[in-house]
Amino acid sequence: MNGTFESIKTIVDGLNNASLDPKAEVVIAPPFPYLSWTKEHVKASNVAVSAQNAYERGDGAYTGEVSVSQLKDVGASWVILGHSERRHVLKETDEFIAAKVKFAIDNGLSVIFCIGETLDERKADKTMAVNQRQIDAVVAKLDKSDWEKVVIAYEPVWAIGTGLAATPEDAQEVHAAIRKYLTEKVDQSVADKTRILYGGSVNGKNAKTFNEKQDVDGYLVGGASLKPEFIDIVNARQ
Ligand code: PGA
């Protein structure tokens, strides 16, 4: 829930004027009111537009919700689901999030599916148990082919917006465990192909430090995406 028309215009202008790594797949996720404008004005072909949420049902009497078909209508091709703020502030359950993931995929959106443990859960040695529980709800709903439309974002809650990113080693450890879990719960090819992003205090300086970690496939960026350094993150793999 950040941004104004003016600030979002600045971000889009910045992307349009930058030289972006042509191999990077960039997805920007402005709040709902700015999706249409953003889609119309972003120029680079490797920049897609995402919503930050969607509902689990089609159009109808669900006042205040936004449907997948409406998002597609204004040019979104992705949706972020399960973000920690949806889980912890808005109290969305694993099952509700999983239902939204399935509905979005069935109706033509790709999904950035977020998971992650809180600091208390990490301290209690429950990191993988929590991430597995969040993944299980989605595994139960998806067909194998649905996974082609899913990118997982591992975002430890303690690292989001705190300035305290996970170390590349910590991120790699969890990402590798997530991939192994996908092998067990879905299959090897899905585990190999599913991209796993790291999110939580990624910035223009630390993005490169994750480059050599083989299971870190990219980033989900919050605060730094609102600043010019976002371009450095996009280009971190060059
Ligand atoms: P951050 O946010 O990059 O500011 O930590 C990440 C997020 O909101 O997903």
Automatic annotation (TrEMBL):
A GO biological-process term: glycerol catabolic process
Functional pathway: Carbohydrate degradation; glycolysis; D-glyceraldehyde 3-phosphate from glycerone phosphate: step 1/1; Carbohydrate biosynthesis; gluconeogenesis
Enumerate the catalysed reactions.
D-glyceraldehyde 3-phosphate = dihydroxyacetone phosphate
Residue ranges of coiled coil:
none
Q: What is its EC number?
A: 5.3.1.1
Molecular function (GO) terms for this protein are:
triose-phosphate isomerase activity
Q: Domain of life of the organism in this record?
A: Eukaryota
Any GO CC annotation of this UniProt entry: cytosol
Keyword terms: Gluconeogenesis, Glycolysis, Isomerase
Q: Cross-referenced PROSITE patterns, in alphabetical order? A: TIM_1, TIM_2
Entry keyword annotation includes Endoplasmic reticulum: no
Record keywords: Isomerase included? Answer: yes
What PANTHER family has UniProt attached to this entry?
A: TRIOSEPHOSPHATE ISOMERASE (PTHR21139)
Kindly state the subunit structure of this protein.
Answer: Homodimer.
Family per similarity comment: Belongs to the triosephosphate isomerase family.
Listed name of the protein: Triosephosphate isomerase
Give the species this sequence originates from.
Trichomonascus ciferrii
